[in-house]
Structure prediction request, 356 residues.
Amino acid sequence: MQFIDEAKIYLKAGNGGAGAVSFRREKFIPMGGPDGGNGGRGGSIIARAVGSLNTLIDFRYQQHFKARIGMHGSGRQRAGEAAEDIIIQVPVGTQIFEEDGETLIADFTREGDEVVLAKGGMGGLGNMNFKSSTNQAPRYAQPGTEGEERWVWLRLKLLCDAGLLGLPNAGKSTFLAATSRAKPKIADYPFTTLKPQLGVVHVNDREFVLADIPGLIEGAHEGAGLGTRFLKHIERCRVLLHLIDGTQEDVAGAYRTIRHELESYSTLLADKTEIIALNKIDALSEEEVTERRAALAEAAGRPVHAISGATGMHLEPLLRDLLAIIDEARAAEAPAPDDDPFSLPDANDLPAPAAE
Prediction:
């Protein structure tokens, strides 16, 4: 399936149905009076977040959504039927913007979130609503109001637990394939990965979602190499895993390049918890691993894992560290239970009776 993370769509809610001009005409009831019913409401367009989607590919083939108009009213005070609403399903993590691309309408972070993007028009009133003592036979009914019409932008930011960072050919796709059932394209040349990849990692009978984004290059925060297009996908990660290719000479310089891009793009992204791993140690001697690991730790100011995604060396301790940070973040994000004003206090919390 092709990964699409941005789409512009046109929305037109249905107009309201017109009210009816009608008079009661029955035998032996010569002055039945007005009995025109009201028009029905036009269909609205609603966006809803669903967990079964992870791309906006559907909106490449359909960009226009138009709801039906409400049914017109009719005689005998019969109201028109309201038109059915259109439900647009989008992936969890989708942000919806106005046509200017900057004004945020909605940010779907949970499954089931929804918002009315275009409200259907109200049905017009039938002539039975305009009867009065001075006008007992009104020949006027309201037309329905027009439904809302607009263009909106859909932009997807992936929701995942951990995000993979690194320069091109740092071994991110190999790591993802080694730790999950994802099958990313793997080759020995830069920019093998051209779109974000997701994988579910299992460790200690637990699991978390890991995202691999295309390799970043210098100037990514300004859009070089489509950097801004992909950096947004790790903004919502709970922890970043920064992979450094151990076979290159200047591992510290590679680390500083990515850190500079993160800090230039977003302070929120730069402040995220980060784990650093020196990758491809299977291609190095023990002395080279020790030397480059020490240089990387000095540049980063923190401990560095030494791993090999290709052979699986030392992956388990790294995955356990990632899971521990993810668990802490999940616990911090969990909402506090509401205090029930009608609940009885626990017996252990009651004060001891005063001595007589």
